[in-house]
Write a structure and sequence with these properties.
By secondary structure, this protein is of the alpha+beta class. It has three domains: about 220 residues, UDP-n-acetylglucosamine1-carboxyvinyl-transferase, Chain (Alpha-beta prism); about 210 residues, Alpha-beta prism (UDP-n-acetylglucosamine1-carboxyvinyl-transferase, Chain), CATH 3.65.10; about 35 residues, no CATH class. It contains 14 helices and 28 strands. The strands form eight sheets. A four-stranded mixed β-sheet has the order 22-23-1-24. The chain has a four-stranded mixed β-sheet with strand order 2-15-17-16. Strand 12 and strand 13 form a beta hairpin. It is globular. The chain starts with a strand and ends in a 13-residue tail after the last strand. The C terminus is likely disordered. It binds uridine-diphosphate-2(N-acetylglucosaminyl) butyric acid (EPU). The site of uridine-diphosphate-2(N-acetylglucosaminyl) butyric acid has 29 residues, from helix 1, helix 5, helix 6 and helix 12.
């Protein structure tokens, strides 16, 4: 397993290009299950999740290969397999995107339930409700969804849930409706750009989907779908992460290949925080722009709520929290899509942030300086937030479990290093932790069992019993063997 060693404090400077969108590419790859011919995709990022899905599609009879021009070619060579096995599905929730296409094209799908997740509850009841409305018979047995339909029939489907619509659920229902008999209408469809991109691919394959990008979709079913060629949209979450990387390090970064129309809420919030961003359209009428983050000395606090599109994406909530941890005042960050997506709070606190969780919000009291520490990534976007905070912190940090990051960002550390960051990927081992982060017990405390590093008292073993005694100043742990710098980097 790898970890990052980050030496913080450098302002980033330079140009970086945004990759194709992970969350658009994954359902789009799954849609190739329905095509009678090859599907060629441009700008599919090279990510662990993309490889995992290609592997799953391989077990479902789809051959995928990178072409010389880096496009990804997917073609069904065996249309009989219908089982998406737990061993692959459990590695990535987006595997659920094979459910609609398998059912629509092969009449039956047996797909493992994706299981638990670090960002909170992630049920698939809305996916199943939508497919049932189109006439699928659905059972859950031994952890698998078993969906069968001799012929799907167009119907009226409502996809709103307690936390808004569902992104991958809308894709699944769209897939099924594309090959159903008659007309389907989906109300409260997810409006995320990734869903619209999915619909555009289906249309390029011969489907008839109208209303893309709105909560009301109309789909006229067709008999079959052909192969197609498609450009995946740029990753709006990666774009936001890179903009915040420039802002949090007080740097000057030019971010290329951005669809600004997909980033309205992010740009509006960055503006509230006081970040100045220049925007230049790549060419007249192009939907791509180049964004220029200018150095900002003072970050203003703000309130932000993650909401379904066009609101602020939940997938940038953690990165915004990292940014606001350096603002001059108190900010409130709320997540209305995944109300428990706050695993990064405790790790940001280790880096010196002052954040308190209050229900589905976090109260962030901005600090002047973050400081290096050892932290642990809990999920993909939490990892990104920790990288951002560590780059802005004084001193060295270690970020463990960065395999989460590799699922969704292509060579992130290489691209940040090209902008002047100092991030090393090393094997996760005690020897690779920088000396500045290794705490050593001073000689005087040998034989004492300390309860926590920062407690005002220590626990001593006396006659076989633990007793609490006042903590002498000398018993405080030191860092990197230097007694003079005692307490730096230790969580408060
Ligand atoms: N929900 C239900 N029932 C369902 C489906 C969802 O109640 O049947 C709830 C969820 O629990 C959540 C909300 O609805 O509270 C939104 O979930 P959604 O189904 O839209 O999420 P998803 O499709 O599983 C995609 C992205 C996530 C992103 C969310 C929200 C992909 C592959 N994943 O997940 O991306 O956070 O939409 O925008 O597209 C990430 O990239 O880090 C990531 C987690």
């Amino acid at each position: 397993m790898d970890m990052f060693v980050v030496r913080g404090g450098q302002p980033l400077n330079g140009r970086v290009r945004v990759s194709g969108s992970k969350n658009a590419a994954l359902p789009i790859m799954a849609a190739s299950l329905m095509a009678d011919g090859p599907v060629i995709l441009h700008d599919v990022p090279r990510l662990v999740d993309v490889r995992t899905l290609a592997q799953l599609l391989g077990t479902l009879g789809v051959v995928s290969e990178r072409q010389a021009d880096d496009s990804l070619r997917l073609e069904v060579i065996d249309a009989t397999p219908i089982v998406a096995d737990y061993e692959l599905v459990r590695q990535m929730r987006a595997s659920i995107c094979v459910l609609g296409p398998l059912l629509a094209r092969r009449g039956k799908a047996i797909v493992s339930l994706p299981g638990g997740c670090n960002i909170g509850d992630r049920p698939i009841d809305l996916h199943l409700k939508g497919l049932s409305a189109l006439g699928a018979d659905i059972r859950i047995e031994r952890g698998y969804v078993i969906a069968t339909a001799k012929r799907l029939r167009g119907s009226r489907v409502f996809l709103g849930g307690s936390f808004g619509s569902t992104v991958t659920g809308t894709c699944n229902v769209l897939a099924a409706a594309a090959l159903a008999d008659g007309v389907t209408t989906i109300e409260s469809a997810a409006c995320e750009p990734e869903v619209a991109d999915y619909g555009r691919l289906l249309n390029a394959m011969g489907a008839r989907v109208e209303g893309l990008g709105t909560p009301f979709l109309r789909i006229e079913g067709v008999q079959s779908l052909s192969g197609a060629e498609h450009d995946v949209i740029p990753d709006r979450i990666e774009a936001a992460t890179l903009l915040i990387a420039g802002a949090i390090t007080r740097g000057e970064v030019v971010v290329e290949n951005v669809c600004t129309a997909h980033l309205s809420a992010v740009l509006d919030k960055l503006n509230d925080v006081g970040i100045r961003i220049g925007i230049s359209e790549d060419s007249a009428g192009s939907d791509r722009s180049t964004l220029h983050v200018l150095p900002t000395a003072d970050l203003k606090p703000t309130e932000c709520s993650a909401l379904p599109y066009p609101g602020l994406p939940t997938d940038v909530q953690a990165q915004f929290m990292a940014l606001l941890s350096r603002a001059d005042g108190i900010s409130v960050v709320t997540d209305k899509v995944f109300p428990d997506r706050f695993m990064h709070v405790a790790e940001l606190v280790r880096l010196g942030a002052t954040i308190h969780r209050e229900g589905q919000s976090a109260i962030v009291n901005g600090v002047d300086r973050l400081h290096g520490a050892c932290v642990m990534a809990s999920d993909l976007r939490a990892s990104a937030a920790l990288v951002l905070a560590a780059m802005a912190a004084d001193g060295e940090s270690v970020i463990r479990r960065i395999y989460h990051l590799d699922r969704g960002y292509e060579r992130l550390e290489e691209r940040l290093n090209a902008l002047g960051a100092d991030i090393q990927r090393v094997e996760d081992s005690a020897e690779n932790v920088p000396a500045s982060l290794r705490l050593t017990q001073p000689a005087e405390s040998a034989g004492l069992l300390t309860s926590t590093f920062n407690s005002a008292a220590i626990i001593k073993l006396e006659n076989g019993r633990h007793v609490r005694v006042d903590r002498p100043e000398s018993a405080l742990p030191t860092i990197g063997g230097s007694g003079s710098s005692a307490n730096h980097g230790v969580t408060r």
